[in-house]
Amino acid sequence: MISVAVEGAVASVTLDRPAARNAVPVAVWDTLADAVRDAAGRAAVVLLGSAVPGVFCAGADLTEFPAMMADAALPPLFRAAMSRATDAVVRAAVPVVAVIDGGCFGAGVALALACDMRIAGAGASFAVPPARLGISYPQGDIDRLRALVGSGQAARLLLTGDRINAAEAARIGLVEIVAADAEVAAHAVAGRIAENAAESIAALRAGLRGEPGGDARFDALFGGPALAARFAAR
């Protein structure tokens, strides 16, 4: 259900499990993590999207939940596998952009939250429904949601489980861009990112993640090749 394709400076990691609306089984989270790392090693930008019309990701595969209910050893394994995938996105060597055209629910939202930015089609919709199922959300995903939309809106999404449309998602900061064609818009943004200095992108992403050493990164890049090349070309 996971494929990787590279075209120039842009790699695409694509979900493709139409019969299950791209619901991700436990065993596939590690495959997804590997795919993101592979794509990030081959391109300047990674687009994370779907080959299924009208669907980004329905979340976790609910058909696996009865087994987890019957065996207390399984939920931690599910949570850890999902965390490995989202951590792979967060820590990818290059920017990762979520391309959300259609439904994005539950663990699908967690996957989108892990990306550097989110571009939604006009028909996209979002919901975080664990409370409706009688479960919770992994703490790292709660933290990312709160950081992105604020405590109040995070509470609204988590505690009600309500579905919101793309316009509302943009209003509260869950997505950065809403476009008539999310794929076209995402490729345009990826192209602009890829034009910039890779070392600058890496330093800026480290700063956005709150990693220490930001001032040292700033100072060091004045001795870097990208700035020297820009001034040599003048």
UniProtKB/TrEMBL annotation:
What family is reported? Answer: Belongs to the enoyl-CoA hydratase/isomerase family.
Per the UniProt record, the source organism is Sphingomonas arantia
This protein's superkingdom?
A: Bacteria
The family database entries (InterPro entries) matched by this protein are listed as: ClpP/crotonase-like_dom_sf, Enoyl-CoA_hyd/isom_CS, Enoyl-CoA_hydra/iso
Query: What is the protein's name according to its record?
Result: Enoyl-CoA hydratase/isomerase family protein
Query: Which segments of the protein form a coiled coil according to its record?
Result: none
